[in-house]
Design a protein that fits this description.
This protein is α/β, with parallel strands linked by helices. It has 26 helices and 27 strands. The longest helix is centred in the middle third of the chain and has 67 residues, at 283-349.
Length: 839
């Protein structure tokens, strides 16, 4: 089918994301797209330029899709333009018929594959309805309203049924309490009274719900037929000893004595004894009856308390389940668009970009993951409350965890004029085994809090090794070490009273500061739980106005061989190399000097440029020039550093490194022209090592030194044929393009039914199965695939791909027959590694 590339398609939708996604879909096939935000805007666009086809949403403000279609079909000039309804809200045969009645040429449900949309455009070209729309507009709107009213009535009926079930449950509970109390407690009480008192009969009378009558619920000594039928009506609760009622006279009773049995909030009934002879009950008999009545009353109240507690527990459990479901739904709704944000960023990062744009996108990606961590914080607290929280256990590089954490928070720190520093002991191993995401989560929380509540000065992250014995060294492979992390700041501090409270959920030390700085109040509570899970503890040392020190310890397995090999390989060329550190911050100067000294270099320090010039000249006089000079660009005016680098010939024999925050990228070109290398703040041992080892490579070009990062994915062994079952259009686009860039072939199915049909027709190496889809969801589709008669097709690897991120969701995926599980937003690296491993 030939595409008319000159054709203009009018896309009408009030949702900007939907318009952009549809634009990408249509323009990819060679068409030109014109956008309109509603029906009125669309009519204006139709007057301005020729349009080849219209794709319109239905539910829009000002003028909806039905009204727009009628306006187009009633206009002789516009009548021949194909009109395609594109909706996700108004589904079903009735709405499809309504669309046809107003003149729509095609009716498509969102999301639709590209080929369906393109075919609809091309097939309706020249075949659009040329007859005017004759349908009565009030009639259309009446049918439209009737459809909405019908849906509303269905929802109301569901609510009525739910209310009826709730009311039935309450009535059943009340009856159960009444029967239990009257049939067990009162029967025992009556037997006790009859055995110990010489009376003609005794009985328990239950008060009616309106308080106007009593029913003889149970009795001893009554004539046959009396119990269960006797009812007496009294305007007030009886307190007299003789009940003057025709019922008693008929029964031959002359003397009665009664005691009321109360319950919480009212009266439960009356316990009574009766005599047919005219005698007076003794005081001892009355006291005995009163004692028995009080025992029954206590038992009834206990039962009522237990019932109310049970009901309260049921309500609490239901509320907790509703909260968990709410969190899961919120997670799903937020993770789905984040898949597009992160996926499109990764696609952009794979293109040819300038270093500045690449850094912008990299920071945007890290910010997206930070947003994801905030969402996970809420989910984590829910898991902790339910006792379902678990840690992962996998190898990781501590350097990468620390670098990523500091780079994510560095810009925020330097924007406030704060120094963010890392003081990592040389003995701390890097290759560890544990939950790296949770360690980064704790560090992000503690450093983020320090930045929030520090207005000037510095924040130092210290990492050291806790030794059991003074002479202990890390020499065993896969042994376990205890690490100590400390985040110290020069901020506002915390009072002694608040230092215990801040670790409780939703509690922060200063409500006014909380309002200014933001936060959920869950971070420290979750961090404390995470650290305890890693066999450690978290504590704080602080004083108002004097800063804070948050310290925690964790115990993790490690491998020392890889660390030693990496260190010896990187520092071999640095042995004995003289270096000058020009930094005015004493803490940063000391940390940098200690790192260089550990690598075998000969560092010297200068706190300002005049001191540095004096040392450089002295070194040159003795023919011992510095091999490296490290300068903090924030210590003075940048122009002064430029002039110094440009005019001082004494620097010609040295390699210059300037340490600069990320936001000062505009100085990069100037530093590069002057032959300097740039190191981003905050400086870590790994980024500094990578920069300084470039001294051994004299042909290295000046520029920005990249931080330590994850290694690139290995080349693929063979292209895979992948079936992607996903109903969300933007998720389809992201995953499809990412996998195609990797070299794999992707076939898209919009729901589980289409996935099943595709597998029946052809073979696939792996299936990416979304869980929540219309027509047939991922669980149903997986179970159907596993029962296919062809053993090869039935055993195809299936990876669950879902925005639901709770532990029970992963367990449910495995129980349904899926081989593995990834949660949205999808980490492309992890997804590729997973499918290429199991395919």
């Amino acid at each position: 089918m030939v595409i008319e590339t000159h054709l203009k398609i009018l896309v009408v939708d009030d949702n900007v994301t939907n318009r952009k996604l549809l634009r990408v879909t249509v323009e990819t096939e060679g068409f030109t797209v014109v956008e309109a935000v509603d029906g009125l805007d669309a009519l204006a666009k139709l007057e301005e330029q020729p349009i080849g086809a219209i794709i319109s949403d239905i539910l829009m403000p000002k003028m909806d899709g039905f009204s727009l279609c009628m306006a187009v079909k009633r206009n002789p000039k516009l009548r021949s333009i194909p009109f395609i309804m594109y909706t996700s809200t108004y589904t079903g045969a009735a709405n499809e018929k309504l669309a046809a009645d107003v003149g729509a040429d095609r009716y498509i449900l969102k999301p639709a594959p590209t080929k369906v949309i393109v075919n609809a455009i091309l097939e309706t070209r020249g075949k659009a309805h040329t007859r005017p729309c004759t349908i009565n507009e009030p009639q259309v709107m009446r049918e439209y309203s009737e459809s909405l009213i019908s849906k509303l009535e269905e929802k109301n009926e569901e609510l009525r049924r739910a209310a009826s079930q709730q009311r039935s449950l309450w009535e059943f509970s009340h009856r159960a309490l009444t029967v239990l109390a009257s049939s067990i407690l009162t029967k025992d009480a009556l037997q006790c009274v009859a055995k110990n008192l010489h009376v003609d009969c005794c009985g328990f009378w239950e008060v009616s719900s309106d308080g106007q009558s009593f029913h003889l619920q149970d009795g001893v000594g009554w004539k046959n037929g009396m119990v269960g039928k006797a009812v007496i009506g009294v305007p007030n609760l009886p307190t007299n000893n003789v009940w003057a009622d025709p019922f008693f006279r008929k029964a031959g009773i002359r003397v009665s004595q009664s005691c009321m049995v109360g319950k919480l909030g009212g009266v439960f009934g009356v316990l009574s004894i009766h005599q047919s002879e005219k005698i007076k009950f003794e005081e001892e008999e009355f006291q005995f009856l009163k004692t028995v009545a009080s025992i029954v009353e206590a038992a009834v109240n206990r039962l009522q308390n237990e019932e109310e507690i049970r009901q309260a527990r049921t309500v609490a459990e239901s509320a907790n389940e509703a909260k968990s479901q709410f969190l899961a739904n919120i997670s799903h709704e937020l993770r789905t668009p984040m898949t597009s944000i992160i996926g499109m960023t990764e696609l952009a990062l794979d293109e040819e970009l300038t270093s500045t744009v690449r850094e912008y996108l990299g920071m945007a990606k890290q910010s997206a993951y930070t947003l994801l961590e905030l969402l996970n914080e809420i989910l984590d607290f829910s898991r902790i409350e339910s006792g379902k929280f678990q840690l992962d256990n996998a190898p990781f590089d501590l350097r990468i965890v620390i670098n990523q954490t500091l780079r994510t928070l560095g810009l925020k720190a330097y924007t406030k004029g704060l120094e963010l520093l890392l003081d990592k002991s040389d003995e701390v191993p890097s290759h560890l085994v544990g939950d790296s995401l949770r360690i980064r989560q704790v560090l992000t929380n503690l450093i983020g809090n320090a930045i929030k509540f520090t207005h000037k000065g510095e924040i130092v992250l210290s990492v050291s090794l806790v030794k059991k014995d003074p002479g202990e060294v890390c020499s065993e492979v896969c042994s376990e070490v205890c690490l100590k992390f400390c985040v110290a700041d020069t901020g506002i501090g915390i009072s002694a009273h608040d230092q215990e409270r801040i670790f409780a959920p939703f509690i922060q030390a200063d409500a006014s500061n909380t309002r200014r700085a933001g936060g959920t109040g869950l971070g420290l509570a979750i961090a404390s739980h995470l650290i305890s899970q890693m066999k450690g503890k978290l504590w704080v040392e602080s004083k108002l106005g004097s800063g804070s020190r948050f310290t925690f310890t964790i115990q993790l397995p490690y491998s020392s061989e890889e660390d030693q090999a990496l260190l010896s390989e990187g520092t071999e060329a640095l042995q004995g190399l003289p270096a000058l550190i020009v930094i005015n911050n004493p803490t940063a100067r000391f940390i940098t000097e200690r790192i260089l000294h550990h690598w075998g270099m000969k560092p010297e320090m200068a706190e300002d440029i005049p001191t540095a010039l004096s040392k450089i000249c002295e070194a040159n006089q003795f023919d011992q020039p510095y091999g490296a000079i490290i300068i903090d660009s924030l210590m003075c005016e940048t122009d002064r550093i430029f002039r110094w680098l440009q005019n001082d010939s004494a620097l010609a024999q040295s390699i210059i490194f300037t340490i600069s925050p990320l936001e000062r990228r505009n100085n990069q070109a100037r530093f590069q022209e002057l032959g300097a290398f740039l190191i981003d703040k905050p400086v870590t041992p790994s980024t500094l090592l990578e920069a300084v080892t470039s001294i051994a490579k004299r042909n290295a070009k000046p520029g920005r030194c990249s931080p330590l990062s994850e290694s690139k994915l290995p080349d693929i062994r063979k292209p895979l044929r992948i079936l992607l079952a996903e109903d969300v259009l933007d998720s389809q686009l992201v995953v499809e393009r990412l996998l195609k860039k990797r070299g794999h072939r992707v076939v898209i199915a919009n729901n589980g039914r289409e996935a099943l049909d595709n597998i029946a027709r052809e073979d696939f190496d792996v299936v990416l199965m979304d869980v929540q889809m219309p027509t047939m969801d991922g669980f149903q589709a997986t179970q159907a695939i596993r029962t296919l008669p062809d053993p090869k097709k039935a055993a195809v690897p299936i990876v669950a791909m879902t925005a639901h991120a709770m532990k029970k969701d992963e367990e449910r995926c495995h129980a349904a027959g899926m081989n593995s599980y990834v949660s949205k937003p999808i980490n492309f690296r992890e997804l590729v590694q997973l499918i290429e491993r199991i395919a």
